[in-house]
Specification:
- This protein has about 100 residues and is α+β, with helices and mostly antiparallel strands.
- The protein has a single domain, classed as Alpha-Beta Plaits.
- It has 3 helices and 4 strands; from the N terminus they run βααββαβ.
- A 4-stranded antiparallel β-sheet has the order 2-3-1-4.
- The chain is globular, with a radius of gyration of 15 Å.
């Protein structure tokens, strides 16, 4: 799942997510089936990438994120994020190169 935050308050949200990383990590770390969560800073805000083992995990992560945003960012006037989700059909990881 990718959630994109831009527009009013999005830059401030990015700073808040980074400043409160350990809190966000604790909340999302409790999501059943969470594989990874990344915050990527952009020129006008950020996007987050959530990878879970199944849809139940991404649904739970979305609920956790919405609840946290509601409790912590009301003063920012954020627009709802654009949410993209789908099923991973291929994963390509890095491989170590043999020493020359």
């Amino acid at each position: 799942m990718i959630r994109t935050y831009s527009g009013k308050g999005a830059v401030e949200l990015t700073k808040l997510l980074i400043d409160r990383k350990s809190e966000v990590q604790t909340l999302l770390g409790g999501v059943q089936g969470l594989v990874s969560y990344d915050i990527v800073e952009t020129g006008d805000g950020c996007f987050t990438v959530t990878v879970c083992k199944d849809k139940a995990g991404t649904d739970e992560s979305l609920k956790v994120a919405k609840d946290w945003l509601k409790s912590n960012t009301g003063h920012l006037g954020l627009a709802a994020p654009q949410v993209l989700e789908g099923k991973s059909v291929a994963h390509i990881g890095a491989t170590e190169r043999a020493a020359a």
